[in-house]
Every structure is written in structure tokens, then in C-alpha cells.
Amino acid sequence: MNEQLALAVFASETGTHLVKPPDTARWRDHLRRFDAGAYERRLADRGYRFVSGLPPLLRAIHDPPPGLFVRGVAPVEMLARPAVAIVGARACSGYGASVARSLGRELAAAGLVVVSGLARGVDGEAHRGALDAGGTTVAVLGCGIDRDYPAAHADLARRIAETGLIVSEYAPGVEPAPWRFPARNRIVAGLASATVVVEARERSGALITADLALEEGREVFAVPGEITSALSAGTNALLKLGASPLTCAADVLASFGIEPDVHDVVADPLLELLPATADEIVRRTGHPAAEVAAALVALELDGRATAHDGVYRRTS
Amino acid sequence: MLARAITHALVGLEPRRVEVEADVHDLGLPSFAIVGLPDRACAESRTRVRSGIIAAELEFPRGRVTVNLAPAELRKEGSGYDLPIALAVLAASRQIPQSELSRHASVGELALDGRLRRVGGVLAVAEGARRLGIEFLICPPESAPEAALAGVRPIPVSHLAEAVAYLRGEHEPEPVQIRDDEEPPPLPDLAEVRGQERARRALEIAAAGRQNLLLAGPPGTGKTMLGRRLPGILPPLDDAAALEVTRIHSVAGLLAPEQPLVRTPPFRAPHHSASTAAIVGGGPGIRPGEASLAHRGVLLLDELAEFQRPALEALRQPLEDGIVCIARAAGRAVFPARFQLVATMNLCPCGARGDAGAACSCTAQRLAAYRAKLSRALLDRFDLVVSVPRPRASELAAGPSEASAAVAVRVALAREALAILPLRRTPDADALLSRAVDRLPLSGRGRARVARAARTIAALAGADEVGPDHVAEALAYRSPQELA
Hints:
The complex is a heterodimer of chains A (316) and B (484). Helices cover 45% and strands 14% of the residues of chain A. Chain A has 316 residues and is of the alpha/beta class. Chain A folds into 3 domains: 2-71, no CATH class; 76-255, Rossmann fold (3-Layer(aba) Sandwich); 269-314, Winged helix-like DNA-binding domain superfamily/Winged helix DNA-binding domain (Arc Repressor Mutant, subunit A). In chain A, strands 1-2-6-5-4-3-7-8-9 form a 9-stranded mixed sheet, sandwiched between helices. In chain A, strands 10-12-11 form a 3-stranded antiparallel sheet, sandwiched between helices. Chain B has 3 domains: 2-167, Ribosomal Protein S5, domain 2 (2-Layer Sandwich); 190-399, Rossmann fold (3-Layer(aba) Sandwich), CATH 3.40.50.300; 421-484, Helicase, Ruva Protein, domain 3, CATH 1.10.8. Chain B is α/β, with parallel strands linked by helices and 484 residues long.
């Protein structure tokens, strides 16, 4: 335990990617001088923990981290619960955002832990969806857990830490750097038994996560998108390679052996028209804009539709 | 001999009495000096006054001529002092009677041939004269209708010689004809906007409730076109408001002579390169900015995110208080600025976001930076936010939509209802609003804005209380999460 903490701190301080102790004088010197007790007390003062006993799924990947720094009040056993990773583009479309949000909500509601990377776009929406459903979600950072990165998600990070966990293999204080994010992705994929890619361009970080998941033999789902959209190029390429197409949350739940709740939803004729802008609905139904606006808000409040950049979509 | 003429300087919109003293000494070398803190345009008056007097076939005094603009510590700006200076010089050289001159205030710029040119701010000058108990204001004919609004009798003169003849009692100028029946030029009509049902509806609500509106969407969807059609559905200004607006526009020199009283709500659309001083007012002479010129009307900020951040932040005071306070070394001025803000913006820097037919190429960072330009505090000031999607070809081919005149009738009725009815929320409506606060990202300020919009919607519907349907519709125009 102490040696693992020393290794994690050493890797962070030297800015190297280490999964086992190197055979160098610098490492031996570091190990000799490292005071694990004092370091842990400093962590505890800030409400952080270090966990060396990794959950089995994460331990099984070929280069597991020495341990994880953890922020949040939830027990670390949460990391061993059935989890699904939801990843995708940061500059996602309204479609991607609403799919990520509703997947996060439905998968968390079904009892899965939603794992993602706290990035803008798909990641953030997936976390938010899980929080909406009152579910648990884990954010894996590519920097120290005390860094709110991106800064725009500081509030989201705080909300996640209230019920879920924020984890990182990097010691507090480590700044975000481009090369750390692919390394972070292996933990995202490693914590989850299934990875869902919502929207991804070609050669994007989300595809790295999917590749890592495939290498570890985990299930990979891709959300189909328009063949003409650059944001779907990555997901459609995954589908071509044999990833499972995801058309509803039940597809993922089935792979976990969870029977989705079949609840009788009163069909709303308005829902049949979605996705559409408010104006399109006005013209197709002939109802005045005022009535259509009120009806769409009612659907939003029931959680059955969301609006993004002016387009209303069904949530399921 | 010493002579005096009365005129007024403007500090912001406030007239300050200025005595133009002229002293002519027959002894000494011929000279002509103007003292009393004149600015460049005012100091150049010397040349114009000399030429004007000669062109009027009068005599420019041969001795030493000194003109003092009192109080000397107040900066005098502009060319409106030409006429009072000329008259004071003529009175000092006994070419017109001082007793007559004392009963008149005067304002106007002289041409080299002695004709009078109009200047800005005559309304405020006339108001200053009325406050001093001066009954007559000698001014260029184009400014006469404007001066008449202040309750003084304008003496329209087109040439310096005419003014002199009048003061000598040799000429009676024609009384001013005030025409208030002139039809204002037609405003752009809503009938020209095809489709965009939601945005049109939001425009109607904004007009009825005097609410601020943000139209967001890809380029070419008619956001600006919609914004420009708001003045056409606003009710005309009442007498008090019309006078306030006219005063500001007079100072800015924007009044049309055939339309002295501004009856239509003003519409201002500054370009996004505008400086802070251009937007809220300022400059060495403390001029009203676009925010004040849009007082009681509409300020359209096209491409909101392209404006300089300080200029936008400076708008927060007028948006909150309806006034702009400007403090400069030259003095302090308060301009009224109670305008309705309409802004347009793209959803992302490249503009393709929200457009089904185009792919957005913006990175997450660029998108975040673009939206971060608008502070939360500013976005919070928009009561209604509407996404304007790209219309389809079929919409553009459709027949004309409802005309502005029909919408204006509903707006006027709703304004009356808002003024007299309490329009409280029913318990059901309250419950819906509370549920929305729980389920949607809606701040306390956002809740208040939704409540206000719901009230306007109820007034437009002719209801006597605010029902859940009204609240639900108002929620549709809340600030969307993606802009937060």
C-alpha cells in the first residue's frame, strides 16, 4: 500500500507513466524519503483518499495504475459495482448531448454506475443524466482530483462528489496535460464492463477509449449517427468494425442481464413528431405557436423530451 | 459699449444659462477675441461671425471686440453660439437695440453668407429659456417646430439680416406652422417574415411586456429581420415619453424638421464594433449613446457576442435602472436609457450549429470561449430567449404571414390589461412554476423572468389571471442550458 502510494506520487512528480516501480536510483531515493503516513494525513485533511486495492475489472487491464486518488464521500466499493462508460465528443451536437443525457439517466436509474471523463459535451451530459436520475456516477480525471478541469464543470464536479466519486491516478496538484488524457481513458474503459460511444470524430479520444475497451474484451456500443456528419464518422466506423449498435438504453441493460422496466407510457401524439423544431410542429399540427410551446414544456417537465439549440427530441 | 445675448449650453441633456457678453472699444488695434472656454468649433465662430455680419450688409465694428461666454468655467461646445455672438456684437456696436435683445434667447450656426444653419439640442435650449422666463427664441426655421415644443415662441429666421430686421422692429417673421399630422415613414412589416412562428410569438410577448429578447440561431435565419420588426408592433409614445425621446434626439441632432415630436418608439442598431462611449454615451462633450437614443424604444444588438465585452457590461446599469450616469472631467451627466434590448447571436463562432444542413467545425474550447464572452449577468437580463432554426424551403414559399398592424392591436390591448389588471397566478400555475424550478435548471432570477413573461402571456390571451398554460408557454422561452 505504502509503496503503491509512493509510486503514484513518484509518477505524478516526475511526469512519467509508471505501472510498476522502475529500477532507478531516483526511485529508490524517493522511496527512502517518502513519508506515506504524513502524505495520507495531508490527503485526509483535504477530504481525499488513496486506494490501492483496485476493483477487479480495473485490476484486470494490462497496465493498471498503482492506485487511485479519490474525492467524494461515497464508499470506494462503488467502483466495483456494475458500471457502464459513456464517452464521446466534447463539441457534440444537440443530438449527441440529448442522447448522452438520456442514456446517463436511464442507465443510472436501472442501477448501473455511469463512468465518464468530466469533459465538456458528451461526458458532462452523461454525468448530468445520471445525477438527474438520482443515480451514481464516477468521473475519471486526467489531472489531479483537486483540479476542476474544465473549469466550466467545477459545479458539476462538486455535485458528483456529493453522491459519487471523482478519481484519478495522478496525485493532487497535477495539471492537465494532453498526453494524460489517453492514459485516463484506459481507466474509464477499465472501470466499466461496457463502453458506449455517443458521438466521435475519426481519431478522437472517445475512439481510444473504445479501442482500449475492445482490447480488454469489454462490450462496446456505438450510437449510430448520420453518415454525412463528421461527428458520426468515429461511431459509424466502430459499427463497421463490429461494435453493437445502440438504439435504446435497453440494449446496454440487456448486456448486463437487467430487464428494463416496461412501464406504460401514455403515448403523446406530439412525441411522434419529434425530433422537430417548435415551428415545424406548429405547421404540421396547425396549432398556434403559444399552445405548442406550452405542450412542449409539459413534455420537458415530464422528462420525456429535451430541447437543444432549438430542436426538441424524445428522451427515450 | 457692452451688450449681452442669452443662450444655453448643454451638460448632458441639462441646459445651463450662458450670457454672451460683447464689448467693443473704438480705441486700440482692431481685434476680435472670444474667451470663456470655447472649444474648437466655438472659437472658429470668429470667422463665421465676421463674414456673416459683413454678408448681412451690416458693419463689423472696427475697434477691439471682445466676446466673453459666461460662466467662464463651463465648456462651450459647438457652433450654436454663432448667432448669439453676432447679435451681441451688433448690439454692442449699437446696430440693434439691447432692450429687444434681452427679451430673446438665440441659437444657431452662421454660414459665411449670413444664412442660419440648424444645430442640435434646440429643444433643451428652448426649455432653458422658458425656465428663465424668456418668451422668445431666435433660431433657424428648421429648428422652430422643435423649439415650440418647449413652450417658448420660436422666431424663425433664415438669415442674420432677418434677425436684425426683426429686432429693429422692421420685420415680422411668419408664425411657425407645427405639423403633427405628417405620416411617419412606414416601418418594416412582420408580414414579410415567413415561418418562424415561435420567434414571431416571442416578439409579440416582448412588445407587450417590454421584455428583452435574445434570438439565437445560425446565420441567415431571419434573426435580424425579426428584431427590426419590433418597433412596428409597439404602440406609439405618449406625450411625456415623446418629449423625453425628442429631447435626447434633439441633443444628438437626429430630429427630422418635418417631424419635430418623435412619436414612434426609436430603433437603434449600433454595429458590433461600437465603443463603450458610443453605446452608453460619453466623449468630451458627454453625448448620449445608443442606449439613450433607444430610450422608450428598441436597442438591437446584432451579433451580441461580437461586441466588446466592456461595452456590453456597461449596458447592465441602464438595463437595471433605466438611466446612464456618466462622470467625466468635463462634468457629470445623467441620460435616461429605458430601452428594450433585442439581441441576436449565432450558436457558435462558425455559425453552423443549429443548422441541420451544415456541420459545425468549432472545437469545444472555441465554443466555450464564444459563449463565455457573454457574462451570466448579462444573459440573465434577457426575459425571453428563442432559438431561431433555419426555415425550410417550403416555409419560404408559403404565403405572407400576419401583418404588423394586427399584432400591434393585440400588443396595445395587452399593455392596457397589464396596466390595470392584477393578473395573479392561480394555485395550479404556481405549482407548475415550482415544479419547473425543481426539474429544470432555473435560477431565482430566471424564475422571476418566467413569472413576468407568464403575466404578459396571460394579458395577451385576455385572461384575468395567470393559468398553468401561460406559465408553461413562458417556460419555453427561458434561457436554455447550452447558453449557460
